[in-house]
Design goal:
With about 600 residues, the chain is of the alpha/beta class. The chain has 21 helices and 23 strands.
Length: about 600
């Protein structure tokens, strides 16, 4: 049986250097070399999972198929690697300690004193080994390589048990099976313009003092490292210059795998892991083309995101990625206008007129409006006003989770005339509860008690925009995260007034998709389509929003998007390929997705 290879990615100096994107890009690079890759993210916080944390604390909560509420970096892993991870792929201090304490309560430690070493450290190692063997790419058998990202920064007190465990783990798996890549900062002082190596030197010294020695340095900087800087780092950090990689600032993150490839990061990893030879040279042709297209786009499409946490973009990271995937597919340059929902409300007009005017100016100038999910009543009235503006002015609108619920509330108030229509989340005593607490939900425990993970939605209408966007399927599987739902007792009245419930669950009692048939694009969904959007395979609903926002929805609906093959530079008029058009068509296809790629590649290669 082959031995699993492990690549550990750590971070030093400061947080926010992009370890998650680096780990994802390394995984992609190894995958392009012909290896099967899985990923694990270690978060040293005491929470059992990310589900109960404010987005201001840790960014968005990413939801997996199995209902796991995990760190947003797992979203990067799924998007880059095209895999489906499980909640066990996210290790937290809370999970480890609960696991050990549960064993202690059962008497599994046979009366021993339970300690951080060896019991916690052993549990960490066993967890890594167990999860690494679980296939995540839809194939049989374990992966070849497991990429592990250690969250936080070297020196953080909460990560010490994990550092110790990983030091032991490197000995446990043996030389040739463990590669440590340390992501660090090489700042450039504006005063002298010199790249300073001292922060990285100290970071590596601290890492070595904790029992881990880096094999490869990935240095974040504003520009490529000078050769003399690499030599200095090599001398003081005991890492060969060939194993020092620069991750300098790039226009978009799709360039990161290309930077790693161009600097032969895969060869360095193969050397450390004693892999005999590279199965395939990583061409990354599709990623090269996509990154170049993204850089070249100039025709804008402007989307207003009306939300509660607009001050921190990581709160809506998957939504931003899904919008980007769709806009690139449509050949448009995405411009996101962040509209604080509360700034649209009447009270803000009284208290802060400038903020009120600025918010409404952004909303009215948008080509499309997106209202994302959220919790709590702050900004709800502003979201309702945004939905009303989009409905009355025929502006393309997509409401997700709470965004769908507020669209229902707005419709009930404005069209049915139920002025006090509301959700019981915001008004427990409302006489017209359009949105209610789910019967199976818990009112005493918050963590892990929502309707979570992949759930099936059945289309109720054969001739609607959402079913066409999904390729005329009978049902779809999308990920959920909510504890409130549309009141089924209100559905008949809403439908009679013109609101169409085009998607429901298997019971027919839980509303999943709403549409306004006579509106250019007005769709609300209870699920979170952003979590399954991928580069080269954008979420159909986001693709519909962007298509409608730039006046090309009919082209999107006609193109069979869900079944559209990925188009890359290899299949578009390249000198090495005689196919004149994408997918070998004899004539140029009338498809806005292939058009965008064709136009770029034809200009480059012809």
């Amino acid at each position: 049986m082959k031995k699993m290879k492990y690549v550990l990615v750590t971070g030093g100096v400061v947080s926010g250097l992009g370890k998650g994107v680096t780990a994802s890009s390394i995984g992609l690079l190894l995958k392009e070399c012909g290896l099967r890759v899985t990923s694990i993210k270690i978060d040293p916080y005491l929470n059992k999972d990310a589900g109960t944390m404010s987005p201001f604390e840790h960014g968005e909560v990413f939801v997996l198929d199995d209902g796991g509420e995990v760190d947003l970096d797992l979203g990067n892993y799924e998007r880059f690697l095209g895999v489906q991870l499980t909640s066990d792929n996210n290790i937290t201090t809370g999970k480890i300690y609960q696991f050990v304490l549960d064993k202690e309560r059962k008497g599994d430690y046979l009366g021993k004193t339970v300690q951080v070493v060896p019991h916690i450290t052993d549990a960490i190692q066993e967890w890594i080994e167990r999860v690494a063997m679980i296939p995540v790419d839809g194939k049989e058998g374990p992966a070849d390589v497991c990429v592990i990202e250690l969250g936080g920064t070297i020196g953080d007190i909460e990560s010490m048990p994990f550092i110790e465990a990983l030091g032991q783990f490197s000995c446990r798996v043996g030389v040739g099976n463990f590669c440590l890549i340390h992501v660090s900062l090489v700042p450039v002082l504006n005063v002298v313009g010199e790249q300073k190596t001292k922060p990285t030197q100290h970071s590596v010294r601290g890492l070595r003092g904790l029992g881990l020695t880096p094999n490869i340095l990935a240095c974040r900087s504003t520009m490529a490292l000078d050769d003399n800087v690499k030599e200095k780092l090599s001398q003081f950090c005991h890492v060969s210059a060939e194993h020092i990689i620069t991750l300098y600032d790039v226009p978009n993150i799709w360039h990161i795998p290309l930077l790693l490839r161009d600097q032969k990061a895969h060869e360095a990893i193969f050397k450390v892991l004693n892999l005999p030879s590279i199965t395939e040279e990583p061409s990354l042709m599709e990623w090269t083309t996509r990154a170049a297209i993204c850089d070249k786009l100039h025709e804008p499409v402007r989307i207003a995101i009306v939300g509660k946490y607009t001050g921190l973009s990581d709160t809506y990271l998957s939504i931003l990625k899904a919008l980007l995937h769709a806009s690139v597919a449509c050949g448009k340059k995405l411009i996101v206008d962040w509209v604080p929902a509360s700034d649209l409300e009447d009270m803000t007009e009284i208290e802060n007129l400038d903020a009120y005017k600025a918010a409404w100016k952004l909303l009215k100038s948008a080509d499309g409006v997106l209202v994302p999910g959220g919790f709590g009543d702050r900004g709800v009235q502003g979201k309702i006003l945004a939905a009303k503006h989009a409905r009355e002015n025929r502006i393309p609108f997509l409401g997700i989770c709470l965004g769908m619920q507020i669209a229902v509330i707005e419709f009930a108030r404005s069209v049915l005339g139920l002025k006090d229509a509301n959700s019981t989340e915001f008004d427990l005593n409302t006489r017209n509860p359009c949105v209610i607490f789910m019967p199976e939900g818990s009112k005493t425990h918050k963590g892990g008690t929502m309707r979570l993970g992949s759930r099936r939605t059945y289309f109720q209408v054969s001739d609607c925009k959402s079913v066409k966007l999904y390729g005329n399927r009978k049902f779809i599987d999308e990920r959920h995260r909510h504890r409130y739902e549309v009141n089924p007792d209100m559905v008949a009245r809403l439908e009679n007034a013109g609101l169409s419930f085009t998607g429901k669950d298997q019971t027919g009692q839980r509303m999943e998709i709403i549409e306004l048939p006579d509106h250019p694009y007005y769709i609300g969904v209870q699920f979170h389509p952003e979590f399954k959007s991928r580069p080269g395979k954008p979420s159909p609903l986001f693709l519909g929003l962007i298509g409608a926002a730039c006046g090309e929805l009919n082209a999107v609906l006609q193109s069979g998007l869900e079944n559209q093959e990925k188009v890359n530079c290899e299949t578009v008029n390249c000198p090495s390929n005689k196919k004149p058009y994408p997918n070998g068509y004899a004539t140029k296809p009338t498809n806005i997705i292939t058009d965008a790629v064709y136009s770029y590649c034809n200009g480059v290669h012809s």
